[in-house]
Amino acid sequence: xxxxxxxxxxxxxxxxxxxxxxxxxxxxxxxxxxxxxxxxxxxxxxxxxxxxxxxxxxxxxxxxxxxxxxxxxxxxxxxxxxxxxxxxxxxxxxxxxxxxxxxxxxxxxxxxxxxxxxxxxxxxxxxxxxxxxxxxxxxxxxxxxxxxxxxxxxxxxxxxxxxxxxxxxxxxxxxxxxxxxxxxxxxxxxxxxxxxxxxxxxxxxxxxxxxxxxxxxxxxxxxxxxxxxxxxxxxxxxxxxxxxxxxxxxxxxxxxxxxxxxxxxxxxxxxxxxxxxxx
Amino acid sequence: xxxxxxxxxxxxxxxxxxxxxxxxxxxxxxxxxxxxxxxxxxxxxxxxxxxxxxxxxxxxxxxxxxxxxxxxxxxxxxxxxxxxxxxxxxxxxxxxxxxxxxxxxxxxxxxxxxxxxxxxxxxxxxxxxxxxxxxxxxxxxxxxxxxxxxxxxxxxxxxxxxxxxxxxxxxxxxxxxxxxxxxxxxxxxxxxxxxxxxxxxxxxxxxxxxxxxxxxxxxxxxxxxxxxxxxxxxxxxxxxxxxxxxxxxxxxxxxxxxxxxxxxxxxxxxxxxxxxxxxxxxxxxxxxxxxxxxxxxxxxxxxxxxxxxxxxxxxxxxxxxxxxxxxxxxxxxxxxxxxxxxxxxxxxxxxxxxxxxxxxxxxxxxxxxxxxxxxxxxxxxxxxxxxxxxxxxxxxxxxxxxxxxxxxxxxxxxxxxxxxxxxxxxxxxxxxxxxxxxxxxxxxxxxxx
Amino acid sequence: xxxxxxxxxxxxxxxxxxxxxxxxxxxxxxxxxxxxxxxxxxxxxxxxxxxxxxxxxxxxxxxxxxxxxxxxxxxxxxxxxxxxxxxxxxxxxxxxxxxxxxxxxxxxxxxxxxxxxxxxxxxxxxxxxxxxxxxxxxxxxxxxxxxxxxxxxxxxxxxxxxxxxxxxxxxxxxxxxxxxxxxxxxxxxxxxxxxxxxxxxxxxxxxxxxxxxxxxxxxxxxxxxxxxxxxxxxxxxxxxxxxxxxxxxxxxxxxxxxxxxxxxxxxxxxxxxxxxxxxxxxxxxxxxxxxxxxxxxxxxxxxxxxxxxxxxxxxxxxxxxxxxxxxxxxxxxxxxxxxxxxxxxxxxxxxxxxxxxxxxxxxxxxxxxxxxxxxxxxx
Lengths: 279, 449, 379
Ligand SMILES: Nc1ncnc2c1ncn2[C@@H]1O[C@H](COP(=O)(O)OP(=O)(O)OP(=O)(O)O)[C@@H](O)[C@H]1O
Ligand SMILES: [Mg+2]
Known about the structure:
Chain B is mainly alpha-helical. Chain B has helices spanning about 5-40, 50-60, 65-95, 95-120, 140-150, 170-175, 185-190, 190-195, 220-250, 255-270, 275-285, 295-320, 325-335, 340-365, 370-375, 395-405, 415-449; strands at about 45, 150-155, 165-170, 200, 210, 215. Chain B folds into 2 domains: about 45-200, no CATH class; about 220-449, MetI-like fold (Orthogonal Bundle).
């Protein structure tokens, strides 16, 4: 599933460590950039978990973020939909744009923002409610006026779960298997009709078959959504993503088309990490 | 110390622990034993014809014809007693004055006991007090009364170094040689025919009003009062408590000074002696806020509500905290506000835990006496209608238990009512608590499943 | 996918301000509700203090604290509450004396000896004991326990003393003889030990015999006395003591226990020298909570303590009636109610003030212990 014919990025990717301080302020947004960070840092108390990252996430593509444990992948991901607001002591610096608007600016309403940017967590976390109510929950609180049942069905179909659960929509979601639960969480996020889907190691708690399911799913989703995927699984990143970013100790080391990262990365540290020669 | 001694000490140590647990269990049995046994006696007992008469005449329940037939037979069985008494009184009036003086006191005592046993003598005007209009309604008490008829009791204080000794003398000796002597063999022998005991299940004990300060009837007003007070306390404490818990768990900055202060206040409130709540309720709700002109269910409920507030807060807090963090994150990531998340995800998931806390607090509120002494409780009263709870005081189980067993003029004769009340109260509280245990079991099953 | 969508998460400045204001208001409302308990405690202090103050203005502190003359309703009233304070203290001390050893040893057994299933069976016992309303305890104390104490009190005490004393005497003899012969070894030691067992055993038995026969001859004038109340209060304090100290023992953790066992300690030694010292803050908190339960209890003492405002003679005599603060408030308020404003009314608030201050202090102390215990547990 590796995308062979990668469109070249419109602009060359700036690497953070080459010119960290010399970024031009608020450059005009490229057409394909959906989420963009500029010199963006997140601190937990005084410890920078994400350090001056400048990254462009193009629309309609799958962007994978890889890197060793603790390098700040989840932190960066959660910063995009401002989930870090709930972590005591977390603080963001620098710029993060979504659709050309400053997410951390005074005019951004984080609640509305999260309605546009869905998130799937590492461990499947369906609500202890029925399957139907799980999927219908977000549209309902967002005041969705259409046909709720149709929306639920569409979301479940998109999440490739419909056939398995169509007869037991009113059963508890907790009775599903782990892989089903994770797909349910994806369906729940899709039902909100977001533009961006953030996925934080969505397959880490799943077996290979369930993982394959989810990967297929991501492949289909990218026609409609911008997907950001954090993963520890190099093969997975290679299989499903169009672009890959490598982070190390909170810094963005390299970001490029996936096949470039996996075949001839620019940075020796990326090379080391991908080939498994890492301390 | 050698190994044998160490092992011995170890074994003793273990057995002391086991013994103390056994002792605790035994204590529970010793406590619950009399409550259950004698408490059930208020509901299931051998009721005499007098009991059925009370039910028919005061509550309008029962079969009038059957009772009349029964009354005729009973009257026939009682006839000889009255005849003997009449004969004896005739003997006295004809006899010398000395004889009259000698027997006046014993005879009065005897007549009192007979009236207590069988009700007023035929042909006499109806007594004023309701309690004097009927004989013993319960067979166990009738037998005790019969014993008092057969034996005269008095205490012998002749030895000042010791406590008084109980001396029982047969009344047959007192009245030896008079026409009354056969009475003391007739009464015990024909007690059953005179009173017709029959196994009775008096379930309406729970709902009947009481007559003549609990000599007859049930504990309806008390139970209803306890119900009102408990519900009132819950209505007051639960919203406050749950909202406080929401604030403490989700809105307050954890570890901030305000939170620490609030926590100290909550635990202080939990430690305030219940009687102080009573005084406070009197001084604040009644004398200052004037929620009601004097004692009322409303004032009592507010006081009890304050008393259980810390319990509710703690239970709700714990329940909310034990909801997995991931539910919250999921809801927030789906674009819900904090409040939405709380109301639609956290609270429903915490509900069983909160309910457990509420139910346990209900038990506490139902059983507390001290806070309602000055704010809500009266000794005798009618069942209240809902709107009266804002202005009227009410009898309540805990207070009336105290009142009946320490301030009632005939403590011993209404033991069964006291035990019935204690049994009902304890049963109520334990039922509430087992509901809580059941809820908790369901929670743990749900978390596992 | 551009600015049209972007607008959906942007809000105008005024809307943002409105939203923030609404959030702030909501937060403030929540905070106000949450501070209701703080308000309650403040009001309790204020109102009790306000009504207690006139008493101290009128009569001062000295008589209240140092005199035993309690004649609130006589024409020349006297408000010496010393005997009443003493009664509260005596009854509480009796309850603690009885409940703490029992409760702590039960907690130890519960946390370390019993298998899981047995523990599941014991837990409800504790919960039921904790749930029984105090008036039910008071009723039993008055109606069941008091007559028994009055009639067979001496015998009951003698039996308890005998049953407890015999094993204690036997164990004491055994251990003491072991301890005082450690200097010798071999055959000499065995002989000496035999002698020590005989001598010590004889002394212990003699003492026990005298004690038991003294108790058996006791005459108890009234069943409603300090002993009765202390017993019942002890039973009521038990659940608190057991559950809180069990939590403390559980919090000590497996590592410490396993460390001790690995050094060859028996269970008793592990518990006594390692676990209990580590959990002592929690156990202290448990004891204080038990004391609070006993000192604040009203109904039991009111019903079964005899309500005589006197210091027993001799001072430790539990077999005489006493009177406590709580019972005085409960009992006298009914009569003092209609004389609002008199010293007789305000003295009850003065007593309530003392109760609140005592329980507040105890609560602070127990919180201190809990905090310390928590720190130990975390380390
Ligand atoms: N809530 C928090 N408070 C303080 N520090 C945190 C918090 N969460 C994460 N960190 C720190 O921030 C750094 C980055 O954490 P993050 O979770 O983003 O790593 P990650 O790349 O997702 O790791 P993993 O692959 O293991 O999930 C780590 O050093 C971590 O210790
Ligand atoms: Mg992570």
